[in-house]
Amino acid sequence: MNKAELTTNIDGISVSPHNFINGRRVASKDCFEVRSPLDWTRKLAEVSRSDEAIAHDAVSAAVEGFKHWSSFSTSRRVEVLYRLADLIDANVAKISTIECLDMAMLHESLRLRVIPRGALNFRAYADLVAEHTERSWHSKGTANRVIRDAAGPAVVITPWNAPFMLATWKVAPALAAGNSVILKPAEWAPLSASMLADFINEAGFPEGAFNVVQGLGSEVGASLVADPRVRRISFTGSPATAQHIGVAAARNIVPFTAELGGKGPLIVFADADIDGAAKKAAAQFEDSGQVCLAGTRLLVERAVKQEFMDRFSSYTDQHVFGDSREPATTLSPAIHPIHLERVEGFVERARQAGDKIIFGGARYDPEKLWYKPTLIEPKSNQSEVVQKEIFGPVLTLQTFDSEEQAVELANSTAYGLSGIVYTSSSARASRIGRAVRAGTVWVNSFLIRDLSAPFGGYGISGIGREGGDYSLDFHSDLKTLQILEDSVS
């Protein structure tokens, strides 16, 4: 194939829908369609549907690429990572346009916040490896050092929500540690990951250091994680898929991290800024609720329930349905008809079970993928809508009368990715923040991220931690070098 056949034009932007292996575009014999959630009648691209042979070739390329990339000095690696970050910054507008069409996140949010975070991820990990100091000490007549060695080829599997940013969040520490990478993006929104490959190629990474394999998770993803040459696996997605990946990782004794979604509580105490809490609660409907960190279970102290509801309903009513490319739009569509049907199924089962639909509970337009912001007051804490991740614009409302009851409700699901607490008491903030079982707990705020902090979940929300040195340690083999003192000169 010539270059023109390996790319497609989307709104004037050239994007390859094919694999990137060993520094070159590789098309598969079969393809699958990618359509825009903004207009499901619009086909964006025919994307390569890779198979086991493609997966094998990608891992082979990563094995060779690892030899070259891991041999780069730290300063040289940092230089290339910074060059990549500059290329992302220079192409924010193009990436935002493609990602908006591909998965429908609000364009303004992508352009101003989400896509620039991709460049920040690469700079942050470049800085961390540049600033790293080996631990050293003396013990029992020996001089000791802890050395990070690059682990080897890493398979990175990313989700369809915020695909570019989440890909860079996982790829950056792997590359910074000196590993080669095979990225398998989600089939519902794969196009921005393909753009990342072009920037990496332009930045000067050696061939095979970074590879993209397009395709279905059950087909090519399964082949990638089962390959014994892979030395690290990082996954974001569902607990069910993680179970399969975990089995494959265990067979080859490969370290594995997984971020598996959440069912976060948003706890509002009577002493809180009720208006601020209500406004933040209404913001949980943004991006069609397709945010793993969202506070989807509203837990409100009974004494302020009515005040909270009045303000929360008012802020919810201010949301605007529309094209995600329009600045006035605040509510984007669901990613895919299949996912929208899944969300509808949760709400319909809740209705049939006797849970109270306070508002919403239906599509905004029966012919499109927008779903109305929905609030459900469950009949029981065991209701499905309380206990399972919906990943849509559906929140639940429960009340409590004491701190103990609030904590009990907050910790009553199998998930533990995040929590949000609203209170004006610093003592309560500390007590509840410590008591809520979640990997990240925000007090009077939401989605403020420090890239040096650990990120991950309790329970079925995940395995391991990412972020800062936690990611770099995961992507490294740690060696203790012990030298008998006075035995060398």
Give your account of this protein's structure.
- It is a single chain.
- This protein has helices spanning 52-69, 74-90, 92-103, 107-131, 163-176, 191-203, 217-226, 239-251, 274-282, 305-317, 337-353, 384-387, 403-410, 426-435, 468-474; strands spanning 8-10, 13-15, 19-21, 24-26, 30-36, 39-49, 136-139, 142-150, 154-157, 181-184, 210-212, 232-236, 256-259, 264-268, 295-301, 356-359, 374-377, 394-400, 418-422, 440-443, 462-463, 476-484.
- The chain has 489 residues and is an alpha/beta fold.
- It folds into two domains: 3-260 and 457-480, Aldehyde Dehydrogenase, Chain A, domain 1; 264-443, Aldehyde Dehydrogenase, Chain A, domain 2.
- The strands form six sheets. A seven-stranded mixed beta sheet has the order 16-17-18-15-14-19-20, with helices on both faces. A six-stranded mixed beta sheet has the order 11-10-9-12-13-21, sandwiched between helices. Strands 7-8-22 form a three-stranded antiparallel beta sheet.
- Helix 1 (52-69) crosses helix 7 (217-226), helix 4 packs parallel to helix 5 and helix 9 (274-282) crosses helix 10.
- The model has no long low-confidence stretch (mean pLDDT 96).
